Amino acid sequence: MPSFCIFILFLYKICSAETVGNTEPSIVSVEVGESVTLNCISALIDKSKTAYWFKHRLEHKPQEVGYKINGKNAALQNPFKDSKSGFQLKEVGRGFSLSIKQVQKEDEGMYFCGSIRENSVDFSTGTFLAVSGKYTVFNLASA
């Protein structure tokens, strides 16, 4: 048991994770079909080699939306790359933004960015994207 504790302390020393405050509101509400842009603060990715955007929905594991490697173009991951919502990653000044051109109900969730440096991982506090408006609900039990 003592060797396990020493291993955990070793991992904590070489690779720590931190939460960095975000200037984005903690909740953003949009209608279906509207566009929205979330920004990753420059303090979070300023010295980063790689910056990421993640989406997390209740009762699901977090999904990687996309990433930007310092000096290279940003890349979206599936299913966001082929989504009808029109996800887009953009470098804005020294920040990193995530835009959704036509928000759909399934885009609802907690979005947060993160960065990886040589020996640490930093995450933003996150922004919950609440989606309201007209959408169709199918009742399969009565079909």
UniProtKB/TrEMBL annotation:
Domain Ig-like span(s) in chain numbering: 2-124
Annotated signal peptide: 1-17
A matching Pfam family: V-set
Name under which the protein is recorded: Ig-like domain-containing protein
Record carries keyword Signal: yes
Single GO MF descriptor: coreceptor activity
Protein localization: Membrane
Stored PROSITE patterns: IG_LIKE
A GO cellular-component term linked to this record: cell surface
Species of the source: Astyanax mexicanus
Keywords, ordered alphabetically: Adaptive immunity, Disulfide bond, Glycoprotein, Immunity, Immunoglobulin domain, Membrane, Signal, Transmembrane, Transmembrane helix
InterPro entries xrefs: CD8B, Ig-like_dom, Ig-like_dom_sf, Ig-like_fold, Ig_sub, Ig_V-set
Record has Glycosyltransferase as a keyword: no
